Amino acid sequence: LNAASVGAAVRGQDAVLAGVAPKLRLRQHTTLFSQGVTSIVTAMEQHGVRRLLWVTSAGIDPSDLKATGFFFSRVFKPLFLEGVYADCVISENVLRKSRLDWISIHPTRLTDGPRTGKYRVDPWHTPPGGREISRADVADFMLKQLGDDRYFHKTPVLAY
């Protein structure tokens, strides 16, 4: 969130890969996503860095019940995580207003499993039956996007 630190980290880079998350507490309100991406976008635009890979979460789109299931989407999320997801939406609005070549990656439930390279990607919604993906496979997808522009200005959802 420190603009000077972010600027120093971005200066001279070809791309920025960013994944942030607050320490979750029930009924939490956060601005980490929106303030974080604002700092990153500002620094990138100042230093001429164009490509941003930003990680938020599947289930941001309320119409995508496949991402998290009925109980999570209709009960748990509204009661306990609405503030976190609302801030994710704000962060994506910041991206849409930027001049960057951004991709906002929406992983399903993250696991600590190995990189398999055998995940599915849908440019807008959760792949059918997809419920989880390893952090290693999210990283694999992100690295592959450094040389690929098919998901620019999209919110691909990743799942097995």
Topology:
Elements: H1 3-10, E1 15-19, H2 32-47, E2 51-55, H3 69-97, E3 101-107, E4 109-111, E5 120-122, E6 132-134, H4 135-144, E7 157-159
Parallel strand pairs: 1-2, 2-3, 3-7, 4-6
Antiparallel strand pairs: 5-7
Helix pairs in contact: 1-2, 2-3
Shape: globular
How helix-rich are the residues, as a percent range? 25-40%
Q: pLDDT average, as an integer?
A: 91
Low-confidence stretches: none
Q: Output the structural class.
A: alpha/beta
Radius of gyration: 15 Å
Counted by DSSP, the helix tally is 4
- Span between termini: 32 Å
Instruction: Give the amount of beta strand, in percent.
Output: 15-25%
Quantity of strands, as a count: 7
The strand line-up of the biggest sheet is: 1-2-3-7-5
The succession of helices and strands, N to C, reads HEHEHEEEEHE
Largest sheet: 5 strands, mixed
